[in-house]
Amino acid sequence: MGPAPGDWPLPCPRCGGGGPWSRDHVTGLWTRPAWDASAWNVLAEDPTGNHTLLLLDVDRLKDVNDSYGHQAGDAVISAVADSIAAQTREHDLVTRYGAFAGDEFLVLLPNTAIDTGVRTGQRILARLKTLTVTVYTVTDEIVELTGISATAGVTGTGPADVYDLNSLIRRADAALLTAKRNGRDQLAVRPVMTPSEAGGEELYHQSR
Fold first, then answer.
1. Distance CA 70, CA 72 (A)
2. Which of 23, 141, 195, 207 is deepest in the core (most CB within 10 A)?
3. pTM: predicted TM-score of the whole model, two decimal places
C-alpha cells in the first residue's frame, strides 16, 4: 500500500523542501517532482502489486493557444485536471507530465488492476467531451470552448512484473503513441505481461 493521502507529497528528493514548490499553480495538482517522490514510494512499498499508470495528452491544445492565447490554454488544462480529479480517488496520484507545464498528465492508480485502470481512463475521456470551458481571449473576447478531447496510454504492473517508475512511464508512453497513430481521441493499452510473454509483447488498441 502506498503512503496515506495525508503524507503526500513526500519531501523533495533534491532539496528536501515542501510547501509551494509541490503544487502546480494552474491546476493545483502536485508538481512532477512531488509526484515522482510519492510514486516511487508506492512502487517501493509494493513492487510486485497491481498498479496502473495512465498518460493522457490533451488533443490539439496548441490550436487553442494559437487561436485564443495561452491563458485560454491554461483554462482548458485546469478544466481537464478537474475532470481527472473527479474520476479518480483521493489517494491516486495525478500530475502534469512536465515539471511545471505541458498538456500531458500522469495518473498513477495504486493497487488497481489494469482493466479497472482502463475503465477509469475511458470515464475521463468521456467526461472531457462534455466540458464547456469559458475563456478570455487575447482580444478580450469571451469564448466558450467545447469538443475537448484527449488521447491516453495505459499500462500496469502485475504479480509477475517488477517495474520501476521509469519503465512504467515508457510503457504508458508507448501506448499513448499508438493511440495517437490510430487517430487520437482514444485509449491504447500496453498489457500486463508474464515473464514468458515479455519477449514478444504487442500493443493493442482499446476502442473509443
1. 5
2. 23
3. 0.84
